[in-house]
Write a structure and sequence with these properties.
This protein has 7 helices and 10 strands. It is of the alpha/beta class. The protein has 2 domains: 1-82 and 160-258, Rossmann fold (3-Layer(aba) Sandwich); 91-158. The strands form 2 sheets. It has a 6-stranded mixed β-sheet, with helices on both faces. A 4-stranded antiparallel β-sheet has the order 2-1-4-5. Helix 2 (98-108) packs across helix 3 and helix 6 (200-206) packs across helix 7 (240-255). The mean pLDDT is 91.
């Protein structure tokens, strides 16, 4: 038997505390995770538990107080450039078209824009926005703007994709479509992806593994491998196996005290 592949991303004993006025707020405490090349991993946990902080530390965008992050065995000491990021807010520039917003990623990296234009147009087509390259943000719906932001995160063909609740503000139907779009692109390109989400169903549907986070300061309460066939459709959400995964995660959150279920009052 051959040895297991070395992790692409390794987080070792990372801790992070933020200052809020005079108070110190611990976000992460002695947290360790590993992510394999080409793996899709979701971080799911209560609001404010440190999921986004962990993702930003992995990307080298903020510094840990203790511990270390390595990518390809090299310690991350500043912004790691071979990645793409999509946030909950698309953060498009109002005075740039869809195509120009996507290509801003290329301009900021001082890469030859002309060589990436065809790829940007292809990405727009893959997310259902063919014919919208010359539209401005005000001419797009919220879901369309988020698709443009996803294309911007992918246009330079990054090795790692960091997704910080990119679909959290969308309506349910648009969110399902965006999950389909992201799954299709991920299956084609096999990027190493980390998704931060509050949706247990989304985490299970999208992922190879789900890391269940404790309330702040965050630790990993459970590391759950998702054994569901790909590509996945929405019907799989009605399967016993899918519901077993989501039920298990909810029970973990219940044990952690995340759900406060007070006794219902009786009328009369």
């Amino acid at each position: 038997m051959g040895s297991a592949a070395a992790p692409l991303i390794r987080v070792r004993s990372v801790s992070k505390t933020f200052r809020a006025g005079r108070a110190l707020v611990p976000a992460l405490e002695d947290l360790s995770i590993e992510v394999q090349p080409g793996e899709f991993v979701s971080l799911v946990g209560p609001s404010g538990c440190g999921k986004t902080s962990l993702m930003m530390i992995i990307g080298g965008l903020i510094e840990a107080d203790r511990g270390e992050v390595t990518i390809h065995g090299e310690q991350v000491k500043g912004p790691f450039t071979n990645l793409g990021i999509a946030f909950q807010s698309p953060e498009l520039l109002d005075w740039r078209t869809s195509l120009q917003n996507i290509l801003l990623q290329i301009e900021m990296r001082d890469l030859p824009v002309r060589e990436y234009r065809a790829g940007a147009l292809r990405l727009l087509s893959e997310v259902g926005l063919e014919g919208f390259a010359d539209k401005y943000p005000y001419e797009l719906s919220g879901g369309m703007r988020q698709r443009v932001a996803l294309c911007r995160a992918l246009v330079h063909d990054p090795e790692i994709l960091l997704l910080d609740e990119p679909f959290g503000a969308l309506d349910a139907l648009t969110r399902d479509q965006m999950n389909y779009d992201l799954q299709r692109i991920w299956l084609e390109k096999r990027k190493t992806a980390i998704l931060v989400t509050h949706s247990i169903e989304e985490a299970v549907w999208m992922s190879d593994r789900v890391l269940v986070m404790t309330p702040r300061p965050a630790k990993v309460a459970a590391d759950i491998a998702i054994d569901l066939p790909r590509p996945r459709d929405l019907e799989i959400k009605t399967s016993p196996t899918f519901n077993e995964y989501t039920g298990r995660i909810r029970r973990i959150f219940g044990d952690l005290g995340v759900f406060r279920m007070g006794e219902a009052r009786r009328g009369g």
